[in-house]
Amino acid sequence: MTEIGFYHLTRSGLEQVLPQLLQKTLAAGKRALVVLGSDDRVRDMDSHLWSFEPASWLPHGTPRDKDPEEQPVWLSTEDTNLNAATFLFLADGAVSEKTDSFERCFDIFDGHNEDAVAAARASWKTLKDANHTLTYWQQSDRGWEQKA
Q1: Cβ-contact 129, 1 below 8 angstroms
Q2: 69-74 mean pLDDT
Q3: C-alpha span between 1 and 144 (Å, rounded)
Q4: Neighbours of 126 (CB within 10 A)
Q5: Which range of residues forms the domain containing residue 105?
Q6: Structural domain total, the chain
Q7: In this structure, what CATH number is given to the domain that contains residue 59?
Q8: Burial 73-85 (b: 16+ CB within 10 A, else e)
Q9: In Å, what is the CA distance from 22 to each residue of 14, 29, 89, 121, 125?
Q10: Each residue's pLDDT tens digit, 27-41
C-alpha cells in the first residue's frame, strides 16, 4: 500500500518546500512525478528548479521537453507516469486516482487557503477509508512536525 504524506504549508510556500523534498528524493535514488494545478504553474516551477539555489539545480523536465523517461523529475498537470517515478508529488489542488502505483505520495497544500485545507481534509478521509498509510506533517517555527 502506498504511503501518503500530507504536507501542510504554513510558514513557507511550495517554491521553498518542493525543491528540498525533491533533493531528498533524488538523494535516495528515487524518481519523482510532480503534478501541479496549471500549465502556468508548471512553467513557473520549471524555471524555479533551475535557479532556486545559485550553486545548485535539480535535473527535471516538463511536457515541453523531449524524452520524459530520461528525466529523474517530471513536472506536469497530468498524473501520467512518463518517467517511471516511484514518488508522486501533488500540489496546487492536483489529485490522482493512481496513488496505488507509487511507493510514496506527497500531498502538499497551502494552509492559508481554506479551499486547499478543505480539499486536503476530504482527501485524507477518502484515503483513510481506503486503508492507506497516512501521515500528516505541519510546518512550525521548529521545522516540520508530524501530527497525530
Answers
A1: no
A2: 97
A3: 24
A4: 11
A5: 3-147
A6: 1
A7: 3.40.50.10110
A8: bbbbbebebebeb
A9: 12, 11, 9, 24, 26
A10: 999 999 999 999 999
